Amino acid sequence: MATSYYAPSGDDVATIKFVNQGRGNADVYIYQGAEFCTGKQDAGTVDRLSSHTVSVVGNQPQSFSFGYGFTDYSGTKSCAITATFTPESQRDYEVLIVSSYGGCVAYLYELEQGQKREISGKQREYAKPYTNDNWCE
């Protein structure tokens, strides 16, 4: 179960804009413990074809999950990506989730002077069931 996310403030924060181009409304979770995805916190819902900006502590690893669910003619489907990266303080980032043939894909960008530059993060894998805390490796 997730607790509510409380955004940090001050000079040592970065912002992440979560952009949803998936097939349903998407949920954003930020983890207190980035290394093993512990302390799941609900950072909000992003409506389809919309965005939501979250502040995080800069200069330290941040793990997040971003995913959506939807129902169509063949049933209920969902897709989520969990990743870790280290945002720099006072910088702006964007995570874009899009539908793909195999499910979904997420792209990570640094935003600077109106330009997007793709950067790398680490996509996380399941070490334990997702419903447990401390689930990624």
Q: In the CATH scheme, what's the topology name? A: Immunoglobulin-like
Q: What gyration radius follows from the Cα positions, in whole Å?
A: 14 Å
Poorly predicted parts = none
Question: How would you sum up the major sheet?
Answer: 6 strands, mixed
What is the CATH class? Mainly Beta
CATH superfamily: Domain of unknown function DUF5300
Description:
- With 137 residues, the protein is mainly beta.
- It has one domain (3-123): Sandwich (Immunoglobulin-like), CATH 2.60.40.
- The protein has no helices and eleven strands.
- The strands form two sheets. Strands 1-4-3-6-7-11 form a six-stranded mixed β-sheet, with no helix packed on it.
- Strand 8 and strand 9 form a beta hairpin.
- The two termini are 19 Å apart.
- The mean pLDDT is 90.
Give the gist of this structure.
This protein is mainly beta and 137 residues long. It has strands spanning 3-4, 13-21, 26-33, 38-46, 50-57, 62-72, 75-85, 92-100, 103-112, 115-118, 122-123.
Outline the fold blueprint:
Elements (H helix, E strand, L loop, with lengths): L2 E2 L8 E9 L4 E8 L4 E9 L3 E8 L4 E11 L2 E11 L6 E9 L2 E10 L2 E4 L3 E2 L14
Parallel strand pairs: 1-4, 2-8
Antiparallel strand pairs: 2-5, 3-4, 3-6, 6-7, 7-11, 8-9, 9-10
Comma- or semicolon-separated keywords:
137 residues; mainly beta; Immunoglobulin-like; six-stranded mixed beta sheet
